[in-house]
Write the structure tokens for this entry.
Amino acid sequence: MRPDPAQHLQPAGTVPPSDEACAALARRLAAETEGEVLFDAPSRGRYATDASIYQIMPAGVLVPKTGRDVATAIDLAREFQVPVLPRGGGTSQCGQTTGAALVIDNSKHLRRVLDLDVAARRVTVEPGIVLDHLNAQLKPHGLWFPVDVSTSAQATLGGMAGNNSCGSRSIAYGNMVHNVLGASAWLSDGECVDFGPVASLGVRAAGIAQHVQQLARQLAPEIEARWPKVMRRVGGYNLDIFHNQSERPYTADGSVNLAHLLIGAEGTLAFTRSLTLQLAELPRAKVLGVVNFPTFHAAMNAAQHIVKLGPTAVELVDRTMIDLSLANPAFKPTVEKALIGRPAAILLVEFAGEDRGPLLLQLQRLVELMGDLGLPDSVVRMPEEGAQKNLWEVRKAGLNIMMSLKGDGKPVSFIEDCAVPLEHLAEYTDALTEVFARHGTRGTWYAHASVGTLHVRPILDMRTDGAARMRAIAEEAGALVRKYKGAFSGEHGDGLCRGEWIEWQFGPALNEAFRSIKQRMDPIGLFNPGKIIDPPKMDDGALFRFAPPSAPRPYRRIPLVPVLDWSAWNVQADPVTEETTPPGSGGDVTGGFAKAVEMCNNNGHCRKFDAGTMCPSYRATRDEQHLTRGRANTLRLALSGQLGEGAFTSEAMLDTMDLCVGCKGCKRDCPTGVDMARMKIEFLAHYKKKHGHTLRDQLVARLPDYLHAASRASWLFNLRNRVSGLAWLGERLLGLSAKRSLPAFRSDTFWNEPDPGLFTSSDMVIAAALSGRKSAVLFVDTFNGGFESENVWAAVRVLRAAGYLLHTIDKYSGHHCCGRTYLACGMVDEAKARAGALVEALLPMAEAGVPIVGLEPSCLLTLRDEALVMGLGAKAETVAQQALLFEEFIAREAREGRFKLEFRPATKRLLVHGHCHQKAFGAVSPILEVLKLIPDAKPELIESSCCGMAGSFGYEAAHHAVSMQMAEASLLPAVRENPDAIVLADGTSCRHQIADGAQREAVHVARLMASLIA
């Protein structure tokens, strides 16, 4: 049934519907769909932004479980005159997925492969499936979907269709539009229509096709005169499917496919139900040549010659990106292998095909070409797949690496994908660099040199004069694009930052044709209004995430005295040199905490599911709330007063932070450096100060205080594990899951049964170190010393057998503690006191260069992380420099020829699970390195994220289910699949999870090594 034309919606997309309409819509959605209905302020706030500079609070959010939920939502939204905004990963860089609408998040449930025809190389998918996940399912068939965008780990196919995504290898495979065979989509009146080849369309689709064809015929001269002739053009609608203007035709045989009209439409014409895609065969071989250039201009000028060699990709990384990558510990080793000296830019040139032999010849021709261009010996050859993959990961992280600049000024997306013919690329980039300089800024260049689309983002402060400079730069850049006959919108779409430029690019006649298409398909303006048709001004400050003082509601920060030191983020950066001011000078009234939170650029890198750590709670729930990005957005909104008074210490914020397991995966994996584990400590300190600590908090935090008393009455404390009724009572009173066995107290702890002959005094260890003799101080933590003392004795045996003089610290009552348990409960002052005492005890030895060796990753690495931001000063820095995990120490000593010990051969497979903190600090590879000192040992790393325990997290009844979900994602299945293997895990929590979940004993590496000493 067609809607009443009188029910026309204003297509501004920025004016929120009435509260009454939203409330009524929420009630009906809750009653009539199976999906999650999220209309509270924090949930809406998490969907108010994408990876752009914009923020618009949505009317509400629906996370549908089925296609029927979507159809129902469209009908209800039409009834209540609330716009509809489809969303996938929310990674759009131009504001396409922000709007005052009902956001429908397809990414959680609508992610199935509906049909796969291997012979025909075609697949039909739901819009919420992520590209990497699709390709993982296609790989066993030797196929892939080749539109390989850099956000492939989080980009959904529906979002890629909405943007007409391109990817690094478009020179070989084309854009999204070239690889879509069909689509099924709902129109705003509720009818579901199949879009495909014109010859096979149904009545409704045929009528749309006829309308578009008539427009194309009438406007043929305008199309020929105004339409960009480059392949990278995504502005407006694809009216030219009936009159091709692209250098790569939409179809191989010149036929028309109406599904292509929806590609690049940004969800403004219809709501995608499914997509049918053309697949390609996976290349059997690839080689990579990394060309190093002395000047940026030389790289740009060479691109036009390199593409003639037939590469599958030619990607740029400029000097700024190189330097930022070298500063990132996750990327530095990879980048160093690609460099010759200190180049101004590098081009990644890939050749792919069936056989390696011909590809190596192409690589040789690249070397010869560079010699002909006056750049001999400029190519680093990478024929190995592993090295190629690592370097491509750095390139794919380019946007996020670029956004890691601290301070209020950030690289801003608005002209980052202008496309020009390749022969003009060098001239265009030179001219645009001069434009940046005139406006007191500079840009960082990267991406698709093969097709004349270089991503560049000038550094602007959108809180001050950024909008005015953005407008001026855009106008000058537009003039250059017109001069070189390019496209102003080349890849990332129009959205809010380029929508107003559509008419500039295409002229009023074609713009009216676009309006006519929108009117024909969505006459009530239901879908994503304010995009492509009637967009707002790109510099409307009211729409900015960081609204300037001139905006109706300027961005501000609520004053706050942090408990941790965030001054490193409280800086400003020079937009030309990118040099930052001294820590603490940035003017942040939260001491830098808010600025650290604001480092999240919403690109969604944390939504990935690969072998990295980040983000385990999202992997388990797939909820935006339980994502590093979701938490950062909620914190930012609270710290800026946008969620109301007291939001920062509210129950809603506690719910948001609750499933953060403090794994530190984001500390390493987030390219912009969002450290949510540390942010949770900061939040908990403020929340607990307001609401108080529970009895469970006290029991967990003060474990180091009562451990020794408990060990003397271990039988009493262990009754809970033996008497089921006590476990049930403990769950009721303390919230500790009855399904878990708690760590067993013991009377024979390391401290209760000392062997003074094994350790020497601190003075002797210091003297030994100063004289060059092998020595170390063993930091015995609460967990290994009190619960698994055999690990300590094993480490002592290994180190003494290798000739090391050992010392261990103690004190009159109890033992020294790093403060980790206190931090986990938000007791930062208490943690500081414990860590401070530990630092004081270790300082004399650290100053003498004595290595500090620890067994428990979370405890030892506290000395290299949180201890440095608790106000302990230079002493903590000195201790941190000497703090090493057991395997880190042995690996270092072995490399230097100091650790020499004979071991018996390994007789079983060795499976290694890395503790999250080991992964975050790059301390997993030393484990494998040390295990290889054992004859016949071939250690295998379990590709796992967090084990799910995370200290006390997994013991809590409220978290037991999600804890097990995290473990079952990869860790526990891998353990069960290898029943005869020795499982190694350094983390106390990890060992307990494996014991509970797989009924297998996992051992510390020290125990294995001690058992095999010859």
